[in-house]
Amino acid sequence: MIVRVKLYASLRRYRPEIALGHAFDCAVPDNATIGQLVLETLLLPSEEVAIALVNGMVSDRERLLKDGDQVALWPPIAGGAG
Predict the structure, then answer these.
(1) Diameter of the chain by CA atoms?
(2) Among positive and negative, which fits the CA dihedral 74, 49, 7, 68?
(3) Residue 28, Cβ neighbours under 10 Å: how many?
(4) What's the chain's Rg over C-alpha atoms?
């Protein structure tokens, strides 16, 4: 099945060929989870992915993906007033 992935902030360095602000299609096995997408398909270090949104909703790594899902991945983000 195909999901559409968008990497944000420092995660973009893993797909430098993708233009800023663009997503890319990614083939994953049926019944793949977000965790499998991150680790096995995209080959991203687990500790570098802090937030995953599927179709705009925050999701955990056990969430099963469906054909056509839109996945956004964010690294850990720090900042704000202390």
Answers:
(1) 44
(2) negative
(3) 21
(4) 12
The DSSP bridge partners found for residue 71 are: 5, 54
A 10 A CB-CB count for 55 gives 12
Mean pLDDT value across residues 68-80:
86
Amino acid at 34: I
Distance CA 42, CA 38 (A): 5
pTM score, whole prediction: 0.90
Sheet order of strands, 51-54 included: 24-27, 2-7, 70-74, 51-54, 57-58
Question: Tens digit of pLDDT for each residue in 16-60?
Answer: 999 988 999 999 999 999 999 999 999 999 999 999 999 999 999
CB 1 within 8 A of CB 66: yes
- At residue 78, the pLDDT reads 63
* Among 75, 24, 25, residue whose Cα is nearest residue 50: 75
